[in-house]
Amino acid sequence: MNNASDPQYADKLAQIALRLKSHAGSIIVAAHEDPDGDALGSVLGLTRALQSLGLDAVPVGVPPKYLEYLPQVGELTSSLEVLPEGALLVALDSAEVTRVIGVPMDQTGIPIINIDHHGSNPRFGEIALVSPDKAATAIMVKDLIAALGVKLTAEIAAPLLTGVITDTGFFRNSNANGEVLRSAADLVEAGASMVAINEALGITTRNSFKLQSEVYATIAYDLGGKVISAFVNDAILERVGCTWEEVESLVSHLRSAEGTLLAVLYKDYGDKVKVSMRSKASVSAQNIAVALGGGGHVPAAGATVQGNLEEAKRLLLQQAQLELTRVGAL
Ligand SMILES: [Mn+2]
Known about the structure:
Helices cover 38% and strands 17% of the residues. By secondary structure, it is α/β, with parallel strands linked by helices. The protein has 2 domains: 3-201, inorganic pyrophosphatase (n-terminal core), CATH 3.90.1640; 208-326, Roll (Diaminopimelate Epimerase, Chain A, domain 1), CATH 3.10.310. The strands form 2 sheets. The chain has a 6-stranded mixed beta sheet, with helices on both faces. Strand 10 (295-296) and strand 11 form a beta hairpin. The protein is globular, with a radius of gyration of 20 Å. The model has no long low-confidence stretch (mean pLDDT 94). The structure holds manganese (II) ion. Residues 38, 93, 117, 136-137, 167 line the site of manganese (II) ion.
Protein backbone atom coordinates (compact mmCIF):
# COMPACT_ATOMS: atom_id res chain seq x y z
CA MET A 1 0.00 0.00 0.00
CA ASN A 2 1.46 3.38 -0.85
CA ASN A 3 0.83 6.52 1.18
CA ALA A 4 -1.54 8.09 -1.29
CA SER A 5 -3.93 5.13 -1.05
CA ASP A 6 -4.04 5.31 2.75
CA PRO A 7 -5.16 8.81 3.74
CA GLN A 8 -5.24 7.90 7.46
CA TYR A 9 -1.55 6.97 7.36
CA ALA A 10 -0.65 10.18 5.52
CA ASP A 11 -2.76 12.30 7.89
CA LYS A 12 -1.08 10.83 10.93
CA LEU A 13 2.37 11.37 9.43
CA ALA A 14 1.49 15.01 8.80
CA GLN A 15 0.20 15.35 12.35
CA ILE A 16 3.42 13.85 13.77
CA ALA A 17 5.59 16.02 11.50
CA LEU A 18 3.79 19.14 12.73
CA ARG A 19 4.08 18.08 16.37
CA LEU A 20 7.81 17.46 16.03
CA LYS A 21 8.52 20.67 14.13
CA SER A 22 6.65 22.81 16.63
CA HIS A 23 8.29 21.22 19.69
CA ALA A 24 10.56 23.68 21.48
CA GLY A 25 12.40 21.27 23.85
CA SER A 26 14.48 18.14 23.39
CA ILE A 27 13.18 15.27 21.30
CA ILE A 28 14.35 11.96 22.71
CA VAL A 29 14.46 9.28 20.01
CA ALA A 30 14.59 5.73 21.37
CA ALA A 31 13.68 2.15 20.46
CA HIS A 32 13.18 -1.23 22.11
CA GLU A 33 15.68 -3.08 24.31
CA ASP A 34 18.21 -5.33 22.55
CA PRO A 35 17.90 -3.06 19.50
CA ASP A 36 18.06 -4.71 16.08
CA GLY A 37 18.89 -3.13 12.75
CA ASP A 38 15.39 -1.69 12.33
CA ALA A 39 15.27 -0.23 15.83
CA LEU A 40 18.70 1.37 15.73
CA GLY A 41 18.48 2.32 12.05
CA SER A 42 15.16 4.06 12.63
CA VAL A 43 16.52 5.95 15.65
CA LEU A 44 19.57 7.21 13.77
CA GLY A 45 17.70 8.01 10.55
CA LEU A 46 15.01 10.04 12.30
CA THR A 47 17.47 11.78 14.63
CA ARG A 48 19.66 12.91 11.75
CA ALA A 49 16.63 14.21 9.84
CA LEU A 50 15.35 16.14 12.86
CA GLN A 51 18.79 17.59 13.54
CA SER A 52 18.99 18.79 9.94
CA LEU A 53 15.94 20.93 10.76
CA GLY A 54 17.78 22.43 13.73
CA LEU A 55 15.71 20.46 16.25
CA ASP A 56 17.33 19.19 19.47
CA ALA A 57 17.03 15.45 18.82
CA VAL A 58 18.78 13.05 21.22
CA PRO A 59 19.24 9.43 20.02
CA VAL A 60 19.31 6.84 22.80
CA GLY A 61 20.57 3.27 22.64
CA VAL A 62 23.48 0.86 22.77
CA PRO A 63 24.28 -0.99 19.55
CA PRO A 64 24.98 -4.73 19.58
CA LYS A 65 28.42 -5.61 18.21
CA TYR A 66 27.22 -6.31 14.65
CA LEU A 67 25.63 -2.84 14.41
CA GLU A 68 28.51 -0.88 15.89
CA TYR A 69 29.29 0.44 12.41
CA LEU A 70 25.98 2.36 12.31
CA PRO A 71 26.39 5.28 14.74
CA GLN A 72 29.17 7.82 14.59
CA VAL A 73 31.50 7.95 17.57
CA GLY A 74 29.69 9.66 20.45
CA GLU A 75 26.44 10.00 18.52
CA LEU A 76 24.33 7.75 20.74
CA THR A 77 23.49 8.41 24.38
CA SER A 78 23.50 5.02 26.11
CA SER A 79 20.83 5.98 28.64
CA LEU A 80 19.27 9.03 30.26
CA GLU A 81 19.18 9.31 34.04
CA VAL A 82 16.67 12.14 33.97
CA LEU A 83 14.58 13.55 31.18
CA PRO A 84 15.30 17.11 30.18
CA GLU A 85 12.54 19.58 31.11
CA GLY A 86 9.92 19.79 28.39
CA ALA A 87 11.18 16.76 26.49
CA LEU A 88 9.15 14.76 23.97
CA LEU A 89 9.79 11.06 23.38
CA VAL A 90 9.59 9.32 20.02
CA ALA A 91 9.36 5.56 20.64
CA LEU A 92 10.32 3.61 17.53
CA ASP A 93 9.76 -0.09 16.74
CA SER A 94 8.72 -0.62 20.38
CA ALA A 95 5.71 -2.89 20.80
CA GLU A 96 5.51 -2.15 24.53
CA VAL A 97 6.11 1.15 26.26
CA THR A 98 7.97 -0.70 29.02
CA ARG A 99 10.46 -2.03 26.49
CA VAL A 100 11.71 1.42 25.43
CA ILE A 101 15.33 1.38 26.47
CA GLY A 102 17.55 4.01 28.05
CA VAL A 103 14.68 6.30 29.03
CA PRO A 104 13.34 6.59 32.60
CA MET A 105 9.76 5.72 31.64
CA ASP A 106 8.61 5.85 35.27
CA GLN A 107 8.92 9.64 35.09
CA THR A 108 5.33 10.46 34.36
CA GLY A 109 4.01 13.02 32.01
CA ILE A 110 6.40 12.87 29.08
CA PRO A 111 4.44 13.09 25.85
CA ILE A 112 5.12 10.11 23.59
CA ILE A 113 4.91 9.68 19.85
CA ASN A 114 4.68 5.96 19.11
CA ILE A 115 5.75 4.78 15.64
CA ASP A 116 5.80 1.02 15.14
CA HIS A 117 4.85 -1.87 12.88
CA HIS A 118 4.12 -4.55 15.49
CA GLY A 119 0.44 -5.47 15.38
CA SER A 120 0.47 -6.20 19.13
CA ASN A 121 1.42 -2.57 19.94
CA PRO A 122 -1.30 -1.25 22.31
CA ARG A 123 -1.18 2.19 20.65
CA PHE A 124 0.29 3.96 23.68
CA GLY A 125 1.26 7.62 23.59
CA GLU A 126 -0.15 10.99 22.63
CA ILE A 127 0.03 10.08 18.96
CA ALA A 128 0.33 6.42 17.91
CA LEU A 129 1.07 5.41 14.34
CA VAL A 130 1.04 1.61 14.28
CA SER A 131 1.04 0.00 10.83
CA PRO A 132 1.46 -3.79 10.85
CA ASP A 133 1.39 -3.80 7.03
CA LYS A 134 4.77 -2.02 6.97
CA ALA A 135 7.72 -4.40 6.72
CA ALA A 136 9.95 -2.19 8.84
CA THR A 137 9.63 0.81 11.13
CA ALA A 138 12.43 2.29 9.00
CA ILE A 139 9.96 2.54 6.10
CA MET A 140 7.55 4.51 8.31
CA VAL A 141 10.41 6.77 9.41
CA LYS A 142 11.34 7.31 5.77
CA ASP A 143 7.74 8.37 5.10
CA LEU A 144 7.81 10.65 8.16
CA ILE A 145 11.02 12.27 6.94
CA ALA A 146 9.25 13.03 3.64
CA ALA A 147 6.35 14.53 5.62
CA LEU A 148 8.86 16.66 7.52
CA GLY A 149 10.05 18.00 4.19
CA VAL A 150 13.59 16.76 4.75
CA LYS A 151 15.52 15.54 1.73
CA LEU A 152 17.16 12.14 2.20
CA THR A 153 20.93 12.25 2.46
CA ALA A 154 23.33 9.31 2.51
CA GLU A 155 23.72 9.75 6.29
CA ILE A 156 19.97 9.53 6.82
CA ALA A 157 19.36 6.82 4.22
CA ALA A 158 22.07 4.33 5.29
CA PRO A 159 20.67 3.49 8.75
CA LEU A 160 17.14 3.31 7.31
CA LEU A 161 18.26 0.88 4.60
CA THR A 162 19.90 -1.21 7.31
CA GLY A 163 16.50 -1.40 9.01
CA VAL A 164 14.75 -2.42 5.81
CA ILE A 165 17.39 -5.06 5.02
CA THR A 166 17.43 -6.62 8.48
CA ASP A 167 13.65 -6.68 8.99
CA THR A 168 13.09 -8.37 5.62
CA GLY A 169 15.89 -10.93 6.05
CA PHE A 170 17.94 -9.36 3.25
CA PHE A 171 14.75 -9.08 1.13
CA ARG A 172 14.12 -12.84 1.47
CA ASN A 173 11.15 -12.88 3.86
CA SER A 174 7.53 -12.80 2.75
CA ASN A 175 7.25 -9.15 3.82
CA ALA A 176 9.67 -8.01 1.10
CA ASN A 177 6.89 -6.51 -1.01
CA GLY A 178 6.88 -3.85 -3.70
CA GLU A 179 6.84 -1.03 -1.18
CA VAL A 180 9.96 -2.48 0.45
CA LEU A 181 11.83 -2.60 -2.85
CA ARG A 182 10.66 0.89 -3.88
CA SER A 183 11.70 2.29 -0.50
CA ALA A 184 15.07 0.55 -0.74
CA ALA A 185 15.54 1.99 -4.23
CA ASP A 186 14.87 5.51 -2.89
CA LEU A 187 17.36 4.99 -0.08
CA VAL A 188 20.03 3.69 -2.46
CA GLU A 189 19.44 6.64 -4.79
CA ALA A 190 19.86 8.95 -1.79
CA GLY A 191 23.35 7.53 -1.28
CA ALA A 192 22.97 4.50 1.00
CA SER A 193 25.35 1.75 -0.10
CA MET A 194 23.76 -1.68 -0.32
CA VAL A 195 27.21 -3.24 -0.72
CA ALA A 196 28.64 -1.51 2.35
CA ILE A 197 25.65 -2.49 4.49
CA ASN A 198 25.63 -6.10 3.31
CA GLU A 199 29.39 -6.35 3.90
CA ALA A 200 29.08 -4.88 7.40
CA LEU A 201 26.14 -7.10 8.36
CA GLY A 202 27.67 -10.18 6.76
CA ILE A 203 30.95 -10.26 8.64
CA THR A 204 31.61 -13.57 10.40
CA THR A 205 34.18 -13.55 13.19
CA ARG A 206 36.46 -16.52 13.94
CA ASN A 207 34.51 -17.27 17.10
CA SER A 208 31.26 -17.00 15.20
CA PHE A 209 32.37 -19.81 12.86
CA LYS A 210 33.09 -21.92 15.95
CA LEU A 211 29.67 -21.01 17.31
CA GLN A 212 28.02 -22.08 14.05
CA SER A 213 29.76 -25.46 14.06
CA GLU A 214 28.65 -26.14 17.64
CA VAL A 215 25.07 -24.97 17.14
CA TYR A 216 24.61 -26.76 13.81
CA ALA A 217 25.79 -29.95 15.51
CA THR A 218 22.57 -29.77 17.57
CA ILE A 219 20.25 -29.60 14.53
CA ALA A 220 17.13 -31.74 14.73
CA TYR A 221 14.17 -32.19 12.37
CA ASP A 222 10.63 -32.68 13.63
CA LEU A 223 7.07 -33.01 12.34
CA GLY A 224 8.00 -34.98 9.25
CA GLY A 225 11.03 -32.81 8.53
CA LYS A 226 8.98 -29.61 8.24
CA VAL A 227 10.54 -28.07 11.37
CA ILE A 228 14.27 -27.60 11.80
CA SER A 229 15.66 -26.59 15.16
CA ALA A 230 18.93 -26.12 17.00
CA PHE A 231 19.86 -24.90 20.43
CA VAL A 232 22.48 -22.83 22.13
CA ASN A 233 23.31 -22.45 25.82
CA ASP A 234 25.87 -20.79 28.10
CA ALA A 235 28.23 -23.78 27.95
CA ILE A 236 28.45 -23.55 24.14
CA LEU A 237 28.94 -19.77 24.22
CA GLU A 238 31.68 -20.12 26.80
CA ARG A 239 33.49 -22.79 24.74
CA VAL A 240 33.51 -20.67 21.56
CA GLY A 241 33.94 -17.22 23.14
CA CYS A 242 30.71 -15.65 21.89
CA THR A 243 27.93 -13.67 23.58
CA TRP A 244 24.16 -14.12 23.37
CA GLU A 245 23.78 -11.21 20.96
CA GLU A 246 25.97 -13.02 18.41
CA VAL A 247 23.45 -15.87 18.30
CA GLU A 248 20.64 -13.88 16.68
CA SER A 249 21.54 -14.38 13.02
CA LEU A 250 21.74 -18.18 13.25
CA VAL A 251 17.99 -18.74 12.99
CA SER A 252 17.95 -16.99 9.61
CA HIS A 253 20.54 -19.49 8.38
CA LEU A 254 18.44 -22.40 9.64
CA ARG A 255 15.52 -21.01 7.65
CA SER A 256 17.26 -22.01 4.41
CA ALA A 257 16.95 -25.72 5.26
CA GLU A 258 15.58 -27.77 2.38
CA GLY A 259 11.99 -28.94 2.73
CA THR A 260 11.29 -27.07 5.97
CA LEU A 261 8.58 -24.52 6.71
CA LEU A 262 9.68 -23.45 10.18
CA ALA A 263 13.11 -22.79 11.68
CA VAL A 264 13.52 -22.60 15.44
CA LEU A 265 16.47 -21.60 17.56
CA TYR A 266 16.18 -22.47 21.24
CA LYS A 267 18.21 -20.12 23.44
CA ASP A 268 18.50 -22.12 26.63
CA TYR A 269 19.19 -19.87 29.61
CA GLY A 270 18.72 -22.72 32.11
CA ASP A 271 15.62 -21.46 33.94
CA LYS A 272 13.92 -20.22 30.78
CA VAL A 273 14.19 -20.77 27.03
CA LYS A 274 13.86 -17.98 24.48
CA VAL A 275 12.70 -19.27 21.10
CA SER A 276 13.39 -17.42 17.86
CA MET A 277 11.44 -18.51 14.81
CA ARG A 278 11.44 -17.93 11.06
CA SER A 279 8.69 -19.32 8.86
CA LYS A 280 8.15 -19.84 5.15
CA ALA A 281 5.18 -19.87 2.78
CA SER A 282 1.86 -19.36 4.59
CA VAL A 283 3.13 -20.67 7.94
CA SER A 284 2.92 -17.99 10.62
CA ALA A 285 5.74 -17.91 13.18
CA GLN A 286 3.68 -15.17 14.82
CA ASN A 287 0.73 -17.51 15.51
CA ILE A 288 3.05 -19.94 17.29
CA ALA A 289 4.79 -17.16 19.22
CA VAL A 290 1.51 -15.61 20.37
CA ALA A 291 0.26 -19.01 21.55
CA LEU A 292 3.41 -19.24 23.68
CA GLY A 293 2.91 -15.76 25.13
CA GLY A 294 5.29 -13.96 22.77
CA GLY A 295 4.88 -11.96 19.59
CA GLY A 296 6.52 -10.59 16.47
CA HIS A 297 5.70 -10.69 12.79
CA VAL A 298 4.27 -13.42 10.54
CA PRO A 299 7.65 -14.54 9.10
CA ALA A 300 9.77 -13.79 12.21
CA ALA A 301 8.65 -14.08 15.80
CA GLY A 302 9.72 -15.20 19.25
CA ALA A 303 8.64 -16.08 22.75
CA THR A 304 10.04 -16.91 26.16
CA VAL A 305 9.08 -20.21 27.73
CA GLN A 306 9.60 -20.69 31.46
CA GLY A 307 11.14 -24.11 32.07
CA ASN A 308 13.84 -26.30 30.60
CA LEU A 309 14.71 -27.11 27.00
CA GLU A 310 12.62 -30.32 26.87
CA GLU A 311 9.55 -28.45 28.11
CA ALA A 312 10.10 -25.61 25.63
CA LYS A 313 10.48 -28.09 22.76
CA ARG A 314 7.34 -29.95 23.76
CA LEU A 315 5.24 -26.77 23.96
CA LEU A 316 6.63 -25.36 20.74
CA LEU A 317 6.12 -28.52 18.71
CA GLN A 318 2.56 -28.72 20.00
CA GLN A 319 1.84 -25.23 18.62
CA ALA A 320 3.87 -25.84 15.44
CA GLN A 321 1.75 -28.92 14.77
CA LEU A 322 -1.44 -26.85 15.07
CA GLU A 323 -0.05 -24.15 12.77
CA LEU A 324 1.23 -26.59 10.13
CA THR A 325 -2.13 -28.38 10.23
CA ARG A 326 -3.92 -25.02 9.84
CA VAL A 327 -2.08 -24.32 6.56
CA GLY A 328 -2.52 -27.91 5.34
CA ALA A 329 1.17 -28.79 5.53
CA LEU A 330 0.68 -31.88 7.72
MN1 LIG B 1 11.04 -3.72 13.21
